[in-house]
Amino acid sequence: MHRRAATRLRCRCASRPSRTWKRHPGGSTPMSQPCSTFLRLYIATQKFKEASVLLMEALHIREKTLGLDHPAVAATLNNLAVLFGKRGKFKEALPLCKRALTIREKVLGSDHPDVAKQLNNLALLCQNQGKYNEVEAYYERALHIYQKCLGPDDPNVAKTLNN
After folding, report:
1. Using CB atoms within 10 A as the burial measure, which of 43, 48, 132, 148 is most buried?
2. pLDDT for 49-104, tens place per residue?
3. What is the spatial distance between Cα 93 and Cα 13, in angstroms, rounded to a whole number?
């Protein structure tokens, strides 16, 4: 039963028309919500392999329907990188996270808060690999963006300082 439900959900996610993304170019799409719910279930039950398969399928669909430089592609790349990080696969996660950063910088600009969030994720991956020079540079850049865009008292500034 579980596998059939997963297949139906993937088919539903894949078969929705791409016009739904055009209405929501920067964030979550109606199409992504059921997939995200299913993904959270996999992660909560520590079925990381199944979650990574679902994310890889989502990435393929989004790249094909939206193009390689769409914010939804960056979000999926980031989610996949985080998942690999949870599994201790930091070397596999790093290029995905860097690609997500490149897309976000290109689409949103280099001083956008979503770029800072991606920089924080990249810093955490580098920290887990002992790449401390890169960690410091990523955190400093994220901190600068948050302070500039959101102000010095924003919770994201405090979170980045705490890292």
Report:
1. 43
2. 888 888 999 999 999 999 999 999 999 999 999 999 988 999 999 999 999 999 99
3. 24
- Phi-psi sector, 27: left (phi>0), alpha (psi -120 to 50), beta: beta
Q: What pLDDT score was predicted for residue 132?
A: 93
Burial class (CB in 10 A: 0-12, 13-18, 19+), 145: buried
Quote the tokens at residue 80: 């996949």
- The stretch 123-145 carries a mean pLDDT of 95
The answer to whether the CB of 99 falls within 8 A of the CB of 106 is no
Give CA separation, 135 vs 70, 90, 127, in Å: 26, 14, 6
Cα distances from 28 to residues 21, 64, 100, 137, 144, in angstroms, run 8, 17, 15, 29, 26
